[in-house]
Amino acid sequence: MSVDVGDFISTNQGHIHYELDGGGVIMKYDDLDVVFDIRDEGEHTLVVELVDTLHESLDPRVQETIVFEVVGPTPNPTATPQPTPNPTATVANTANTIFLHIPN
After folding, report:
1. Is the pTM of this model over 0.70?
2. Among 68, 5, 13, which Cα is nearest to 33's?
């Protein structure tokens, strides 16, 4: 997350509150970037708000809600090698195998 709040924080007017997927409010007292390590596929919601030094919403409220989706990588099908035909052997049908890795 990268947020430009001008001199709002450096002049001690307040700070940032943010919440990812209803996981509780995080208070941020600087304007450095935040990196989220989101491993769950699907829709996610990030709410960011500027608040005063008492943690109260500004008037008018300065808040942004960002809804985004995390999708897994597109798998590359890998063909299973087909056996060499042998007239005396029973040949089983083999299917393509798809490997999908999603980090834990």
Report:
1. no
2. 5
| Interval 84-97: pLDDT, tens | 544 443 333 333 22
- For the chain, which residues make up each domain, given as ranges? 14-70
As a three-state string, the secondary structure of the chain is CCCCCCCCCCCCCEEEEEEECCCCCEEECCCCCCCCCCCCCEEEEEEEEEEECCCCEEEEEEEEEEEEEECCCCCCEECCCCCCCCCCCCCCCCCCEECCCCCC
User: Which structure tokens are listed for 45?
Assistant: 């919601």
